[in-house]
Amino acid sequence: MRPAPTLTLAIAAALALATGGLARAQDTGAAEPAPVQAVPAPGATADEAGTFASQRTLEPFLATYEAWYGGRHAGTATMQLVRDAARWRIDLGVRGDRGFAGIVGLNIDQSTVFDQVDGEYRPLAQGTTRKAALVFNRRTTGTYDWASGIARWTGDISKARRAPVPLRPGDMSGLLINLAVVRDAAPGRTLQYRFVDRGRARDHVYRAADTTEPVEVAGLSYEALRVERTNGGNDQTILWVADGVPTPVRILQREDGEDAVDLRLVEYRTLQ
User: Residue 232 is part of which domain span?
Assistant: First the structure.
């Protein structure tokens, strides 16, 4: 079975934990912090960079995706953003069939509770559950303690990953980086974030295309901006972001040039 690398959406990271897969060499260990940036391409004006991204304010939503693995339909995924007073929660649920990641009936549920500080998404707590009938049932929980400047994970996680991780301003979980890309993407921009999730920290750098392109998913056509992680080595993470849509319309993980995990938006709606 091939190990699954980490997706921005955090699905493949959860798959790697579920299957015992290992992250690739360039993604291991704690990286030096990188400031969160959204840098326009040379020559782009502020107006040009801001024209694309009109979805700046968080709004509760529910989105449904088709989940593909290795080019075959493998299940469904849902993403939901809800608000509770001053806090938010983003949930991801994956329901696998036909041997998603080589496991029949694999289910993954992941949530991050967060707030907003100076416009940035600040994680507070995290939980991940991975189940496969008669095979395993694993859960991890994480706490981002900003008062002490430490994040820590407990549960079904290796001893090395239970060590405290120092927090830096702008640190985010994988699910929050997904929201941040939607917030920050604009033609020609370079986006830099620090990923702190499940006992590890590393830099994520993305580059948005200079222009949008037509993208068809689940029979619907979007004019979307391609945003690709540039420091993933042989593993590519590509997101397509459409103006006004609160979540990526497609998220593709490629391994050594071949499609691995592929999420394609079926529908979405805003919630009251």
Answer: 11-23+33-270
62 located within any domain = yes
* Neighbouring C-beta atoms of residue 232, cutoff 10 Å: 22
- Torsion sign across C-alpha atoms 75, 266, 268, 195: positive
Report the Cα 32 to chain-centroid distance in Å.
20
What is the count of structural domains for the chain? 1
pLDDT digits (tens, 9 = 90+) for 158-203: 999 999 999 999 999 999 999 999 999 999 999 999 999 999 999 9
Domain assignment present for residue 1? The answer is no
Q: Are 249 and 217 in contact (CB under 8 A)?
A: yes
Is the residue at 4 inside a domain? no
CA gap 83, 97 in Å, rounded: 31
Q: Using one digit for the tens of pLDDT, what is the confidence trace for 77-112?
A: 999 999 988 899 999 999 988 666 667 778 899 999
Please, is 265 exposed, middle or buried when counting C-beta atoms within 10 Å of its C-beta (0-12, 13-18, 19+)? buried
Phi-psi region of 145 (alpha: psi -120 to 50; beta: other; left: phi over 0): beta
Collapsing DSSP to helix, strand or coil, 174 comes out as helix
CB atoms within 10 A of CB 252: 20
* 146: three-class secondary structure by DSSP: coil
Host H or E run for residue 182: helix 174-184
Asked if the structure places residue 199 within a domain, the reply is yes
pTM value surpassing 0.90? no
